Hints:
By secondary structure, the protein is mainly beta. The chain has one helix at residues 29-37; strands at residues 3-9, 15-20, 54-57, 62-65, 72-77, 92-95, 101-110, 115-123, 128-135, 150-152, 159-165, 170-175, 179-184, 190-195, 200-205, 210-215, 220-225, 235-236, 241-246, 252-257, 263-267, 273-277, 286-290, 295-299, 304-309, 324-329.
Amino acid sequence: xxxxxxxxxxxxxxxxxxxxxxxxxxxxxxxxxxxxxxxxxxxxxxxxxxxxxxxxxxxxxxxxxxxxxxxxxxxxxxxxxxxxxxxxxxxxxxxxxxxxxxxxxxxxxxxxxxxxxxxxxxxxxxxxxxxxxxxxxxxxxxxxxxxxxxxxxxxxxxxxxxxxxxxxxxxxxxxxxxxxxxxxxxxxxxxxxxxxxxxxxxxxxxxxxxxxxxxxxxxxxxxxxxxxxxxxxxxxxxxxxxxxxxxxxxxxxxxxxxxxxxxxxxxxxxxxxxxxxxxxxxxxxxxxxxxxxxxxxxxxxxxxxxxxxxxxxxxxxxxxxxxxxxxxxxxx
Length: 332
């Protein structure tokens, strides 16, 4: 179910030995390039090729990442957070696992006067950890708690993918033993375990209570309901995928190809291709879905960005093949 990473000694003197899945493309190139540029990635453990588990929070312009030798979760503001005090621009770290953090997901839930940030991390030590952070204002600093809100001992193998939807109070995580575990976010207990029948590499949970799993070769997809029912047989992806996201309103998967740099929109239940966007000249390593899927922002290495508009601004109707794109290279 993967290849063995030999024992290595990290800067903290820790010795680690883990199994990891086949190499896959990094999930957040912009965040990763900024982390590297600031010299924050010098203690990163090479989990799976060039992959670095990163989650970005657009509401407050912060990034959280794992993959560190010392097993820490780290966070820092991105260049877009211009008004954050200088003291918070250096990475913070918190510890909730005995092993390297192998996957991260972060979602927000709005309260009356603030935003609650839910962060879920999976680790090579087979555990999940949940973290809750209250955000007050767009440029308010994210302060990592000293310890997680809860640790879930739900897996018998390293966790390689996690996805959370606070509105559903649900976490879905997948491991190297072909298992998907459905857990409660608030109560931190296991609801159900699903036998996938294949080794996964990542998982995406949608707002309509469906989750799609990508296999370790990044070429086959399957969709399940939260009661464990398999809604589709294994479907061949248009090509090997580098990233996939669920549409905010559910119903669709947005995926990016590793080779052609094409962005695909797939119907989540049948996994049939509904539309594709071409025009990226770089590998798409992260996708931000804005405004009920009206705009897709594709991010590559060196902070390259392409935006695709999926609806007509005049008629607010889905666009035909004559979609618009806006490609820019950003210095920040």
